[in-house]
Amino acid sequence: MPNQKILYITTEMYPYQEDTNMAAVVNKMALKMHNEGNDVRVFMPRFGQISERKFQLHEVIRLSGMNIIINDLDQPLIIKVASLPGERLQVYFIDNEEYFKRKQYYFDDEGNPFDDNDERAIFFARGVIETIKKLNWVPDVIHLNGWMSSFVPIYLKTYYESDTYFKDAKIVLSLYNEKDAALDKKIDEKLKFDNISGLKALDKPTIKSFVMESMNYVDAVVKGDEFLDEDLDEAFNATSTQKSEYLDVDSINQLY
Fold first, then answer.
1. Which part of the chain is the Starch synthase catalytic domain (predicted)?
2. Separation between Cα atoms, residue 189 and residue 151, nearest integer Å
């Protein structure tokens, strides 16, 4: 199944993150599809733990310079790119001083979730969508990994609904057991600014509630971890969206 354009949107990928199933799975999926002759791109946040020097990240000036407006505030979008070490596979990094410079991912040193996790997810999702359009590269398959990426289909099917750029792209969502946390209660106001309302996840906004919400906005849901947490597994079993049990990396192209 070569000659497909496959976009991986992820919050983790080996070797930028180590020791997690998601990071390993995304690395293997992307490389397998790349080596089979597909045009593969990966987008992820440029978290502060990712060394620009070690991984040879450099800014792409022609893609940077946009501003994403979140809750009436302009936030500059910086795009960096690197090749996966030892491979000819390009990884694009969404960066912003305000949201991604800190060394921790979603929780501070005391284990408290960051107050702006919701804004970081919105910025990441919109940053990916706008950058793909600027690249003038239309994916056939969009594969989502990690809770921040779950905001992408919600935006595509609401805020960008009249935009035909992604209309033929099929969206796959992988589910993983990620640490849950509450999101800012004012997220409804921030989404309302982008004309998004009526989401069930807004009743009790959490990392997990938005992942569950996004199941309604994708073409297929697949287990990224073989055994899911009870409430995530219940949501998986209940969704009417096409779904697949856990697939090993060698079988993932069957899904595509």
1. 5-181
2. 15
Query: Which residues lie below 8 Å from residue 162, measured CB to CB, with a gap of 6+?
Result: none
Query: Token pair for residue 154?
Result: 């919600």
Ranges assigned E (strand) in the chain: 5-10, 39-45, 58-59, 67-70, 73-76, 78-83, 90-95, 141-145, 170-175, 220-223, 242-244
Q: How far apart are CA 29 and CA 190, in angstroms?
A: 34
Place of tokens 């502060």: 48
Number of domains in the chain: 1
Q: How far apart are CA 243 and CA 232, in angstroms?
A: 13
| Beta-bridge mates of residue 70 | 73
- Cis preceding-peptide flag for 2 (omega within 30 of 0): no
Over residues 149-161, the pLDDT tens digits come to: 999 999 999 999 9
Chain mean pLDDT for the chain: 95
Range of the domain at 41: 5-255
What is the per-residue pLDDT across 148-195, written as a single tens digit (0 to 9) for each?
999 999 999 999 999 999 999 999 999 999 999 999 999 999 999 999
What residues have CB less than 8 Å from 17, skipping those under 6 apart? 23, 49
Secondary structure of residue 244 in the 3-state scheme: strand
CATH number of the domain at 136, please.
Answer: 3.40.50.2000
Global pTM reads 0.96
Instruction: Specify whether the backbone of 3 is left (phi greater than 0), alpha (psi in -120 to 50) or beta.
Output: left
Helix (H, G, I), strand (E, B) or coil at 94: strand
